[in-house]
Amino acid sequence: MNSDPFHKRKSTCNQRISPLTRRILAVNLLAPALLLVGLFYLGEYRRSLIVTELSALRSNGEIFAVALSESAVSPKGEQILPDLAIQIVRRLAFTAQTRARLFAPDGKLVADSRILLQPGGEIVEAESLAPPTSNQNTFLDKAFYYLDVIYFWLPGVEDYDPYLENIEQQGQDYAEVVGAMNGEIWVAHRNMPDRSLILSVALPVTRYKQTLGVLMLSKTSTDIDAAMFEVRKDTLQVFSVTLIFTVLVSLYLGGTIARPIRILSRAAERIRIGHHRQHTIPKMTAREDEIGDLAAALNDMTEALWTRMDAIEAFAADVSHEIKNPLTSLKSAVETTRLVKDPAQQKKLMAVIQDDVERLDRLITDISDASRLDAELSRAENKPVDLAHLLATLADIHSHTESKNGPKLELDLDENIIVSATEDRLMQVFRNLLSNAISFSPKDKPIRIQARNNKDWICITVEDEGPGIPPGKEQDIFNRFYTERPESEEFGRHSGLGLSISLQIIEAQGGTLKAENIIDTNDVIKGARFTVCLPTPT
């Protein structure tokens, strides 16, 4: 977090692609990227193809060895007949699409399926034709080919000895042939210059448990490489389609999430700069999702802020008006005091000054309390409050502080009336309501406080038998500085903020406060009733 108090966060509204869209793209591209990386790690699949190819070579070698031991051996079974062996090796190798070489026990090459003997004794070496390359001409196939070449240079790819073939071959040139001379079957892998493999299997040719030679079958990994190439090609094609789809979906999500948030941000910025109500937050009511909820919440918050600003302006105007009245009276009394010489008149004027000063002190105290109320209520932590105990305490305080000739309190409280609220503020509310009832109630009439638990709500009523509320003023009495007082009360004893503060406290606790007249069957007002309802704790 930046500790510089003058640091201003840079807006992202003017960026072509929002950071949120970039994050969505980055997260969504992770899976296709892992798929692409996985192309280079198909080693297990490649090893299984090699094992399968070697198994096929071994099966063919066993068949070839049996054929040679049965058809190309001298009558006594002591040695291989070269002419017959060459023909059998060539035919069998052609059928199996492999290269077959037969070595004598001393390591001399007897037959090689790639060497043809022309008339006149000329030796011609035949090689298998490379597969057609017409498909390698497309750009995509070339790209896949070079990607396949890169694969062989990655870490973890098996690195075998290079394949070397002398002009005059000897069995001792090949470790698998040397091993097969001892009557065992050997396999070998070797690398070609183009990173392809030569797979070899060497088997002993035996007759009557005598090793007459070694048959070596070898085959390039062309088929394996082609299969691997096709797998990667298919995977890359799937990756390409997935990538395009992922990018489009990410851009769509970015547009449906980042764009409306950017619109809301710009609207909020215009409201902040404009300082008037010309600019509003887009409603986006058609969106039934979290962004729609956010737009609605921003709208409600903006309206609440405007309402709060209006209330502050009205409060400031009311405060100015209410303070100006006692100040005017105080100024007039002070100016008159200087001109009056009669001690009795001066005493009366000083009493007026004293009353105005007390009125100002009372007014400023109540105004200070009202101005701090919002902040204190937002910081206060609600706790379980036993209303029966609180109201009983209030009645006890009243009985010890009020005069004996004042109105008496009658309590009618249910048991187990617990609410979640701020105890001090609730006490302030009921003290205000009781004070209001005392000021209007005749001295010989009781004030009744009743509390009922109605399952979802706990309702408390404060009733008096005074003159009641002027008809039509049931809501106005909760306005700030409303001062409809009884004629017998001295002017300026109340600031007119008590009921307004009480309503504010109750609404902050999630409850309601309303006032009404008590009317008998003859439609005669018999007093006033204030009802406080608070939700029961969940």
**Dominant shape:** rod-shaped
Kindly report the average pLDDT value: 80
Order of helices and strands: HHHEEEEHHEEEHHHEHEEHEEHEE
**What level of helicity do the residues show?**
40-55%
What is the helix tally? 11
How many domains is the backbone divided into?
A: 5
- Count the beta strands: 14
- Tell me which CATH architecture of the largest domain applies here: 2-Layer Sandwich
CATH superfamily of the largest domain: Histidine kinase-like ATPase, C-terminal domain
**CATH top level of the largest domain?**
Alpha Beta
Q: Which strand-content bin applies to the residues? A: 15-25%
How far apart the termini lie comes to 38 Å
Q: Provide the CATH topology of the largest domain.
A: Heat Shock Protein 90
Quickly give the structural class. Answer: alpha+beta
Radius of gyration: 51 Å
Strand order of the largest sheet: 2-1-7-6-5
